[in-house]
Design a protein that fits this description.
Layout (H helix, E strand, L loop, with lengths): L2 E3 L5 E3 L2 E7 L15 E4 L5 E7 L2 H13 L4 E6 L1
Antiparallel strand pairs: 1-2, 3-5, 3-6, 4-5
Length: 79
């Protein structure tokens, strides 16, 4: 999805899908901390959070929770 310009010149952002990888295995009981995100695991034992986030504020909210849990962030990819 993409960004659009309003006639006033202010950008509005549509929702985007994100794939966020953190180091280690986050238990499924933590999935409530990441609303609208699915929890998966890769073959290296890392946790993958994937889903659609409404805007940049929602993304920053997820990143803040990752920071507060002390999880090492490995990657973020917008799809």
């Amino acid at each position: 999805m993409s960004q659009h310009l309003k006639s006033s010149g202010v950008r509005t952002t549509l929702a985007h899908s994100y794939c966020i990888v953190v180091e280690g295995t986050l238990g499924m009981e933590w999935s409530d901390w990441f609303p609208s995100m699915e929890v998966h695991y890769d073959h290296e034992g890392n946790t993958i959070l994937s889903g659609v986030l409404a805007d940049q504020a929602a993304l920053h909210g997820i990143l803040k929770r990752i920071r507060n849990l002390g999880l090492p962030l490995l990657s973020i990819q917008r799809e």
